[in-house]
Design a protein that fits this description.
Layout lengths: L1 H22 L2 H18 L3 H25 L18 H31 L12 H23 L10
Helix pairs in contact: 1-3, 1-5, 2-3, 3-5, 4-5
Amino acid sequence: MEAVARAVSGVDKGLTRMTAVFGLLVLPLAALLLAQWPLRELVQAYSRQANDAAQVLFALYVAVAVTAASRSHAHLASLQPHPGGASRPRWHAWALLACVTPWALFMLWAGWPLVAASVASFERFGETLTPGYFVIKLAMALMLLLVLAEGLLELLPHGRAPGSP
């Protein structure tokens, strides 16, 4: 039982670190989006490649941001307000898991062949042939796996690391 508690705590801490690190992707994403105009108008090159890189960063950012929002109770978990910061009732975690799990599992099942084929061929962006389009499809699978992990953590007692949201 103690090994399970350590594993749960490890997953929880890992998700906390991952959301913090991936949150930093917004900085290079903003820089790439901002750089597109000067690249297109002044340099007259590389604006499409900057856009491709921004799309990859955005996909990764959003894949983790969904879980980060849930962990900070700013997403699905915030549907029912709790006065005075009271903890949510236990049924709330079960209801969220019952709604989200079938969707996430179906999306993983239906999308996995596309993700696998994209990764196997190192799919490129269609217009520029810049490598990396496969990362966008991987980000979908990452998002779904993180949503499932977060849903399970919500159910487990003491599923939150001390100090985590």
